[in-house]
Known about the structure:
Keywords: Membrane, Transmembrane, Transmembrane helix. This protein is mainly alpha-helical. Helices cover 74% and strands 8% of the residues. It has helices at residues 2-23, 29-48, 65-91, 99-113; strands spanning 52-56, 61-64. The protein has a two-stranded antiparallel sheet. A hairpin with a 4-residue loop joins strand 1 (52-56) and strand 2 (61-64).
Amino acid sequence: MQKVISAVFVAVGGIFGSVYLKYIGVISEPSLIVLILAATLVGLFICYADKVKSINLKEGELILQEMKETEASVKELGRAVLELNEASSHSLMLESFDSDADEKAVEKLRKLVI
């Protein structure tokens, strides 16, 4: 909770400071927008600094720790479903079995996992 409060104070202080600088005529409108954006981003970074896994400013990419773990879990689940499907498709050859649909589903899962 303390991080959220400090992040809000930094962001709001930066925004008010930027507006004040524009009001007294020190900066132009594009500079005002850049400073407001920077203050907001700094506030967000303060709030979520412990959850950031990596940041790439060139590509505009921010990866959070939880997202990396979720992605790995989803891929692991997909691998398990794929293995189960491949194993069960050979043992469940019924009259209503559609092998084309089964193969398409396996390929789709394989693309998602790999």
